[in-house]
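New to this. Please check this record:
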Amino acid sequence: MSIDDVLATLRGFEGVLELAPGEGSGFPELAWGDHFFYHSPSGVVPERTQPYATIVTKDYPGEPSSDLDRPGRYRVNVHVGRTAGELVESTDRTATDVVLAHPVYGGWVSVVNPGEHTRTVLEELLARAHAAAAPRA
């Protein structure tokens, strides 16, 4: 799956709000190039809730590395709640196309460079996370 495939999946959900910070956006430079997804039919960023999914294109300071500084690498992060531990397939944070525990947040899973192995499960997790975010919006 390319990053464009993942973006197309997320953008296809009803009521989705995507933040994609870039130069001049008012967001910190560190967030430029990343994507943050909320359920918000009104188009307004919810004040008291986190995104339900993110796509990051670089390792963040203070997080264990996913080796995202190499060209073409990205990580999809999905809020899944209590089932996170049951979904994890590897503890190697740099592994690609496997479900990993998020490097920092409990209740979240990640996939670095999703491919054919994780395509179906990732699409299902993203859909569930979007649906679960609706009541919080």
The chain is about 20% helix and 20% strand. The first strand starts at residue 16 and ends at 19. Residues 46 and 137 are 6 Å apart (CA to CA). The beta strands are 16-19, 35-39, 53-56, 75-79, 100-101, 108-112.
